[in-house]
Amino acid sequence: MKRRHFLVGTAAVIAGAAGVGVYCAQRASADYATYIRTLRRPLDPSGGIDELVRMASLAPNGHNTQPWRFAVRDRSLMIAPDFSRRTPVVDPDDHHLFVSLGAAAENAAIAGAAMGLPGEITADDAGALHYVFANGRPAASPLADAIVHRQSTRSNYDGRPADPATLAALEAAGRAEGVRLVLVTARRRMNDIRDLVVVGNDRQMADPAFIAELKSWLRFSPASAMDHGDGLYSAASGNPSLPDFLGRPAFDLVFKSKSENAKYARQIDTSAGLAIFLGDRADKPSWIKVGRAMQRFLLEATRHGVACAYVNQPVEVAALRPQLAALIGESVRPDLVIRFGYGKPLPYSPRRRVEQVFAGKQAASGQRRKVAALDRLDVGRDFFRGPVPPLQFF
Ligand SMILES: Cc1cc2nc3c(=O)[nH]c(=O)nc-3n(C[C@H](O)[C@H](O)[C@H](O)COP(=O)(O)O)c2cc1C
What we know:
With about 400 residues, this protein is an alpha+beta fold. It has helices at about 5-40, 50-55, 95-115, 140-145, 165-175, 185-205, 210-215, 220-230, 245-255, 255-270, 285-305, 315, 320-325, 355, and strands spanning about 70-75, 75-80, 120-125, 130-135, 180-185, 220, 230-235, 275-280, 305-310, 335-340, 360.
């Protein structure tokens, strides 16, 4: 073969492969957009228990492991811990897991009230939560409407401060018996907490077990995020999408303390403030309360167009907790650090489908009777049925 023919042939093969790659990437992104529009379609007040479960599942949760299972019995939705989805390195005492369950239960309660299924949340000794509901009238609820729009927005914000009325609304939303919410907006105090975030980040990144656990929950491509329905999708953290086989080595190459520390510092520098939640005790019931208060805060923020993201390093690295508490004049264990401000949304993170987390209708213990009261709730409804309205960002 002549050299010129060889070169032309090679160029054609490379161009063809690149074209196929671009086509596949575009296709996967379009599929992901459709998947998210379906997952995040507005609340359907007549959607029954499946809809309650979908709303609960949209709660934030550590590493997006979705450490929950749902079941319904009589007029109670059970939200039970799924300990197979723990993250023992970053969360050895299941603190984040129970905060996440609290957030999911709060979503169920807010959505339930909007759907005409108002109720109360209780907890049992095994750590499961129960949303016990009654029949009522559907009621318009801006917080319920915000559930599908909320996301952890891990981008830089624009540095704009929040006005006093917005801060007061956030403060009121996150207030709860047994939970303290401290809003920090003074730049000097924010800088002190930023420096602690950086110290915590350094320590976490020096821990091979932390990195291995984090990596096991990373999803580098839209296809992988959709297949798993869980985990940390790279685009939702503002990183490029890559096939998993390229994403893993690329992560090892670029994920370095220096650049990550600079990234966190910039993210806090461009935020309007930091919200620190502190439960009055370091136990499961208190963590659940913190999760519920946090979720109301996040939904109120979403409703006001305020973006939020977690910078939890000073609570995840246990040795830094007393320093963080001292910086804000507190003495109990701080539970969460959330930055807030104004910034563009990033792609949404995935969730597993309702039928993957919901065991369906169960008879009361020891009895095989039909749960007649639930018949009108259309429990077996297909999660993906129905038209897909366009998703709105705000
Ligand atoms: C208790 C708890 C701790 C979290 N800690 C962090 C964190 O330290 N860093 C972070 O980027 N996201 C953190 N998150 C956010 C989750 O990663 C996020 O909720 C999950 O990936 C789902 O994404 P979404 O919130 O956009 O729906 C935390 C969430 C919860 C509930």
